[in-house]
Amino acid sequence: MRKNIVAGNWKMNTTLQEGVALAKEVNEALKGAEPKCDVVICVPFTHLASVNEVIDPAKLGLGAENCADHKSGAYTGEVSASMVSSTGATYVILGHSERRQYYGETSATLKEKVALAFENNLTPIFCIGEVLEERENGTYHEVVKAQIEDALFHLSADDFSKIILAYEPVWAIGTGKTATADQAEEIHAYIRGLIADKYGKEVAENTSILYGGSCKPSNAKEIFEKPDVDGGLIGGAALDAPSFMGIVNAF
Ligand code: 13P
Predict the structure, then answer these.
(1) What is the 73 CA–ligand 1 centroid distance (Å)?
(2) Is 168 a catalytic site residue?
(3) What is the pTM of this model?
(4) 77: DSSP letter
(5) Active-site residue among 96, 105, 130, 134?
């Protein structure tokens, strides 16, 4: 059966020292705990190797927030999937709306990134989601469908099964405006239906679909209780260990 997962996305926050301290705090909080979900932190590239030193991989997974769409070579400033993997990280967020919006990421580049993540044994946390206008004009199903079809539906069922999906409505990211639990459930169920149509019911039932967008300890429980919501991808609230643990413990 699919896993419940709570993953933090630190985005471009914390210095190395602050990040290592935060990772230690989360790791410490998980020591005696028996959370009912997998817990992952996705941190800036500069922090990966150092954070890897201070966490217990049996309790806390580690991921990057992006990787390059090329293997290696003359791509100044880029960080490859193999570099990420060499730090000890085992996850990578791909296709976050901030990458799509500010750095022009397209399904074509994301396909390359997914392939390179697999080659380097990284589990993609693949983000999809519509902007406010698309929610309001009722085209959000088609938007999300195209994002999944164009970047992922060329994969074999075996490879698709290794993907974690994160539905993040752009209008709910960092805005304090969360999707209601019913809104999240409606689109998550739709996404699971798309996967079932393409890969069959078993693959669909085994795919973890996380919700992201202003998730907090106060709203996580209601959202996670929905049958097609398998956890969260957490931005702001992941930067404070007690808040992040509050969301982990919502399961
Ligand atoms: P917030 O939780 O800050 O809204 O961010 C969500 C997000 O973008 C996680 O990837």
Answers:
(1) 32
(2) yes
(3) 0.98
(4) T
(5) 96
